[in-house]
Amino acid sequence: MSITTCEKCGEVVDEAKAFCPGCGSSLVDEEERKDDSEFDASGGTQEFSESVFNVMLSDMGLNISEIPDRPGQRAGDKAVDTTPADAAQNNAAPGNKVPIVVIFGILILVIVVILLAVFLIRK
Amino acid sequence: MPREIENHERIIDAFRNVDIVSELVEKLPNGEFRNELEMDIILFGRSYRANKVGPYARLIEFFPGEIILNENTWASSIFYILVKGKLEASVSEHTERKIVGEIQQGNSFGEMALLSGTPRNATVSVTEGTEPALVLELTRPALRLLRKLPKFGKSLDRSYRSYGLALTLNELKDLADVDIDAEVIKRLNDAARFAVYEKDHVLFQEGDPINRVVFVRNGWVQRVSGASFIPKSADLLLDAESSIGIDFLGAGSCMGLEAIDNPGVWTYTATVRGRTEVVEIAVSRLREEKQMSAAIVPILKRSSNIGDSAKPMPPLDKRVLTATSKEIETGVVDGINLLVMDMAKCIRCGNCSLACHKVHGHSRLVRRGIHIERPIKPNSSAMQSVLVPSVCMHCQDPECLTGCPTGAIARFPDGEIDIEPATCIGCGDCATQCPYQAISMIPLGDNAAGLSEKGRFANLFSVFSLRETELPPPVTQTENLLAVKCNLCKDTGMNPPGAKQAAYSCEENCPTGALVRVNPHEYFDEITNTIGLIQKSKTHAIGENIHKFDFRAMVLNVAGTIVVLLIGGLAIWATYTFSQDIALSPNTWITMRWLTGLTGLVGIVWVMLYPVRKQIYRRRAGALRYWMLSHIYLGILATVLILVHGGTSSGGLMTSMLMISFDLTIATGLFGAICYLIIPRFMTRIEREPLLLEDLEMRREELRSQLIRASENETDAKLRNIIRKDVRRRFLGINYLLRQYLRKEDLNTMLADARQQFRPAAESMSRVDEARLMDAVESAATLRRIDALVHLHQLLKVWLAPHVLFTSIMLVLLILHIAQVIYFSGR
To answer: Is the ipTM of this complex over 0.85?
Structure first.
């Protein structure tokens, strides 16, 4: 059994192991990314584009397309129309219509039967 | 029988002889113990506010053949260290026991079940024919203190990783259903590592080279493609960017297999959502060792329900993604036994909380919590509004257990997490730790929490009581408390010894079936689709998933309708054919009037059993939702029969009064049933986030005060007039109230529209006045929304008082009528 030493924790490890049993770090050669990812390049912060920002505003119910154009009083240009007002209404839960209708139908049927019974008996 | 050794010197010696915990009893050059406080608590215990904390360790001698811990049990708040002797680990295979390993002297065992929140996976016993074994038994709090010791901490981490890896490989081996060569397993063990990541850890980013195959053993991973610059908030971009793909992967899924044959880069970013255990296998090893690769890759593919190189696709329905995300982020999917309420069925009666109070002496169920809106099917317009109330969900990885200084809160053998009142010192640590506010503190020795308990006689009459249920007083004391939480009604009349199925007081006493206990992995379809085959649910307490299909309710509905139509129709036909008062056959006294009267009476007696059943909380008496259905259907049937019984003549004053009271009882009952059917659905669509009546009333008062303050503003007469006249007239009128019911619009949309209406008036105002005006507009519009909801809550209760009143009158008159009939028949 040939052995190696973990560079990270110094543990003596069997060379057959791909990871150090002591600290879990990799003991095999792994390809590394050469360039910074877009996320890393932004220093771990998230930058919102204008469209994302507008979506966030409209999610908060702020209809930014309706902001009056009063230069000097408010920041920002006329925004693109991203209001979800209609979409929100379309997404609104219409609920379980069919079962209610069926249940209502049964109830009405039962009431009609009762009324019919009363009518027939009293006739 | 195992023998506990209580001699202090021997206990200290036992610790000294075990390398991984010897630091605990290590002495300084001056003779004092280095970790005296920890040692004292662990070994001998200490006093804390007149309660004893600890000891957390016991030295026990087990004899050959004796079992120390059992496979597949949940009593995982204890772990062990072998001081001396020989132990073997075995698992059951078919009907036999197979020895899988030996515990080495000085090693710990049983701590993995404790750390990972899973049942024991092997039975450990003393090897036959050897000398007795000395074992240190340690409870969960000891682990917290011992982890501070460098040797023990390192050893625990190492054994956790090695155990996790071995366990996962075993699970995969079981899944393969074929024998995998032991050499392959060994090589796989060498090529892989086990790792645990906390929430929000990024496993890899889009564009990183694929170096490892990642197998998710437990937990959740979010995959995002096409948004490498903003992976954590990619869902915000979905509306604007159609190329972004997002999905979730659960336990049993595997990523990166495509790189074994074709080296490449990740096409998506993977982020951990919640505590996640993974096994990472070095891709280079899988490439080099073809035999290992050929054995393991098909199993990984089979377990995973994603394709080889599948990258997340744009969601077909964003609402499903949002629901999935919320279910995972809040952790409700990781509950072992989850309480859910379908708000479209919930009639806000509070009977669930009351039932909990009746069984335990204090309610452990608060009808506030996590709200999830989910489409019933992808792209379906029908939405389900689910409330996960603040009740213990018996998490797989419970945070409440971590800080308990006495180990009073623990996972018990059947998997439920409960608090041992005798050991609880009322420190409140568990209540603080619980992220779901599912643990409450009550005064010690006051289980009734201030509520008066009535006698049996008083309970009988409470059937007719219309009084609001008395609320327990708030707990004000800060000492002498006891932590309480849901224990799944264990050791109560709901689950007597020998009961085959578990029953829960809250679920059994819900009159509409809105509340059920479920296995979240089965209940939430969107989650089921994300987990692989290896995900096991055998430890979950399975609830009837009645929100989708309640077979018994369906049978009752169908049978009820048929019985009403059949017997009702038959009674009408028979009365029409044979007449009311002519004997049905020459030799009998039975007429249709007698027959319908007697059958109707049986129906009424059954109907009256419902309020009696409602008073039974502490033991099983059949689920209230089925009683409710029988109450409604037999009530309707009794109506038909009694009307036929009455016939064309209204009779004397008393029988006329009886018929009128009967009609009114039925009318109010039917109105109530219709309210129960419609209003919760209606209310859910308006309120979105479920709100209690008390919360609504409190908020209404706040908004009223705000509006009054705004209209009494004396700085600007114009603003004052607009608020007093225009705003109040516009929003506090009947039209705006009706709008709430008719449009059922989202609150934000409604407020945006309300602001828009007063925008022209605000044009000429200063910024401060404009803000004041908009505040007043929002307060008034919101107030009307709250009014609308309060009225709906009231409507759910308003029918009950007349229904009970007319029922009471009817019953009195019915008894008199029966007495009258008996008297005249006898004469």
So the answer is: no
